From TrEMBL:
The lineage of its organism: Bacteria, Bacillati, Bacillota, Bacilli, Bacillales. The chain crosses the membrane at residues 38-59, 80-104, 110-133, 154-175, 252-282, 321-347, 359-380, 406-430. The keyword Lipoprotein does not apply. Keywords: Membrane, Transmembrane, Transmembrane helix. Pfam families: Gate. Residues 76-167, 253-346 form the Nucleoside transporter/FeoB GTPase Gate domain. NCBIfam families: spore_ylbJ. The keyword Ubl conjugation does not apply. This is Nucleoside transporter/FeoB GTPase Gate domain-containing protein.
Length: 434
């Protein structure tokens, strides 16, 4: 009897936490919101169990997928992003961001409805690639330089693939055609501009404090503001540099974990047949819009991880390069769930919401695909890489050389940076224990 009473009390506590109660007739009922939460919990737990079982069933394939993701992060992602992350932290600490913000206010405010510092975030996001734009948007929000709505607008349109990846990896590495780089780049960054122009209307109905505009300030005022920001920061050059390196490496370790995770997840879903089932539905959709159904499965792979999808799309036989370029442009704009998971993790450091970013990524994919379809004929010169002329082919050739350099020396840069990170953290821990 007492055991039964104790069990009933336990059940009642569980019901209370999950929103379950009793009607007068004694039948249990549950609010709709609580039921949806329970379904979500069950789905996530079930997905985790299935993934764990898949890892036990296919250990070799999981190791291979993990190794592919690690190699990409080790040789390319880490060494290519680390300098930009460090420099951006230094520019913020020295007050250069505020200086640029004053100068770009007349441009960024009317076009994108964000402060002038958005120009700095946009430029650094374009140069360094995903997810630098979101990281800098969060930093601007943490320092109260943007409002919540402005921060979400910034994160939405300042994330993009960097030129090195587009020209070096996609155009030259996968398609073996440097002339495609310019078409992909213009479609990708043009789509980014269209996303920014569209997102300026986001949040206009919400009550949100406006960040102070600096219209009318002169160049001397901008320089004085730069000086004030540096004094306000207060850190010495050595301290600022050390903090910049440690913060950048921590973010890149997080990015590496997501790249490896989604590389393995994509492989497991393929082995379990899940991608094949979803690919059948995508094939029907592709047929409706006039795209070859052969690109459905590579497209799904690209939704998880850009690099894997782009490589599979470029190696699909019997498909026109025009269709390949459209689909690649979409997944480059969409960013892949791997990049979006990285951004979602970074956004949790502030009050910026993920939903506007996800919507903007879909919008970017659509805009980039449409621009690629329209610009392919006038911009693509299939024999441009054979002429050796400087012109439009120069960025692709430069990207190819940088890509080869990273493949040769990127791993050494990563190793040295990680050794420094371990040594610096060890010194901090030893000081704290003394």
């Amino acid at each position: 009897m007492f055991q039964s009473y104790g069990l009933n009390q336990t059940v009642m506590r569980i019901f209370k936490r999950t929103g379950i109660g009793y009607e007068k007739g004694g039948r249990p009922f549950m609010k709709e919101a609580h039921f949806a939460s329970l379904v979500k919990t069950g789905f996530l737990a079930g997905a985790a169990i299935v993934l764990a079982c898949a890892l036990m069933l296919f250990p070799k394939e999981a190791l291979d997928a993990s190794t592919r993701g690690l190699e990409m992060w080790w040789h390319v992602v880490f060494p290519s992003l680390l300098p930009f992350f460090i420099v951006s932290e230094l520019l913020i600490g020295f007050g250069v961001v505020s200086f640029i913000g004053v100068l770009l206010e007349p441009l960024m405010r009317p076009l994108f409805s964000v402060p002038g510092i958005g120009g700095f975030v946009w430029a650094m996001g374009l140069a360094s690639g995903n997810p630098a734009g979101a990281k800098l948007a969060v930093r601007m929000r943490q320092q109260k330089k943007v409002t919540r709505i402005e921060g979400e607008r910034l994160a939405a349109f300042t994330n993009s693939s960097n030129p090195l990846f587009i020209f070096g990896a996609i155009a030259v590495g996968f398609f073996h055609d440097a002339a495609l780089g310019m078409v992909l780049a213009i479609a990708h960054y043009g789509g980014n501009v269209l996303v920014g122009l569209s997102m300026r209307f986001y949040g206009v109905s919400e009550t949100d404090e406006r960040s102070r505009s600096k219209k009318g300030l002169q160049l001397t005022d901008a320089f004085l503001l730069l000086h004030e920001e540096r004094l306000k920061d207060g850190r010495t050059l050595g301290k600022l540099l050390g903090d910049a390196v440690r913060s950048s490496i921590q973010t890149l370790l997080l990015i590496g974990g997501f790249i490896i995770l989604f590389s393995v997840l994509n492989q497991m879903l393929s082995l379990l047949g899940v991608l094949s089932l979803v690919a059948f539905a995508v094939q029907q959709l592709f047929s409706l819009v006039g795209l070859p159904p052969e690109l459905a499965k590579p497209f799904l792979a690209g939704l998880f991880e850009i690099t894997i999808g782009a490589e599979q799309i470029s190696s699909t036989d019997g498909v026109s390069i025009w269709f390949q370029l459209i689909v690649v442009s979409f997944i480059l704009g969409f960013g892949g769930f791997s990049v979006q998971a990285q951004v979602a993790s970074i956004l949790t450091e502030s009050d910026l919401r993920f939903r506007p970013f996800f919507f903007a990524r879909f919008l970017h994919g659509v805009f980039a695909a449409l621009l690629a379809a329209l610009l392919f004929q006038p911009l693509y010169k299939p024999n441009a890489h054979e002429t050796g002329s400087f012109g439009a082919n120069a960025p692709a050739l430069f990207g190819e050389r940088i890509w080869e350099w990273l493949a040769a020396y990127g791993g050494m840069i990563t190793l040295c940076a990680l050794l420094y990170f371990i040594f610096a953290n060890a010194r901090v821990l030893l000081r704290e224990t003394d």
